[in-house]
Amino acid sequence: MRIVRRWLLVLLALAAPLGAQQRPVPTPASVAARIDALALQYQAEGRVAGLSVAVLHEGQTVIARGYGVANLETGEPVTDTTLFAVGSVTKQFATVSALLLVEAGKLSLDDRVSKWYPMLTRAGDIRIRDLVAHVSGYPDYYPLDFVDRRMAAPATTESIIRRYATGPLDFEPGTRWSYSNTGFLILGRIIERVSGMPFGRFLETRI
């Protein structure tokens, strides 16, 4: 996520108003050249193993290029079509998906989890908004910044939910904030049940 934030800052800086400095307005070509130079510099300094950059301006592609490697073991290069695991970036999309269903009158942020998962701990007390806000109390099934053997083992969404959301809560719902991937797994499954389609299909269709 540090890399993502760094590049967001770079892009924001490139797009920032010039104000009183009265510098020439950057052209798409000059922006592409600056981004390309920064990416090559970061790669040469070893600050990133690999990254893919794409910038569009008024419907036209300014730059779309990969840098470095996607896999350190195989040396597979990054291209402009390399797929990356986006991790928790999906949480924003899950939240938007839930809100779209709220707008459609199919869901309420105050709906209780028990409506779909009555077997989960305190499901009658935990609301959709608690899942979104990370205040449900459900233990995080993926709490570390690295992958251990337990996390690397194949598992279904439902089995993870049963394992981590049917035992004791970490705290009383709504009384604390604690990042919970488990809560968002539950939210994703609720979105699927309410919309009647897989989460990925809902994103493609609605977002």
- What percentage of the residues does DSSP assign to strands (E)? 5-15%
The helix content is 40-55%
- List low-confidence stretches: 1-5, 7-14
Radius of gyration: 21 Å
The overall pLDDT, averaged over residues, is 87
Report the order of strands and helices. Answer: HHEEHHHHHH
Instruction: Let me know the number of strands.
Output: 2
Distance between the termini: 22 Å
Q: Helical region count?
A: 8
Q: SS-based structural class?
A: mainly alpha
Order of the strands making up the biggest sheet = 1-2
**What is the 3D shape?**
globular
**Major sheet: size, sense and barrel closure?**
2 strands, antiparallel
Architecture overview:
This protein is mainly alpha-helical and 207 residues long. It is 41% helix and 8% strand. The chain is built from 8 helices and 2 strands, in the order H-H-E-E-H-H-H-H-H-H. The protein has helices spanning 2-15, 28-44, 90-103, 128-132, 149-152, 157-164, 181-195, 199-206; strands spanning 50-57, 60-68. A hairpin with a 2-residue loop joins strand 1 (50-57) and strand 2 (60-68). The longest helix is centred in the N-terminal third of the chain and has 17 residues, at 28-44. The radius of gyration is 21 Å and the shape is globular. The model is unreliable at 1-5 and 7-14 (pLDDT under 50).
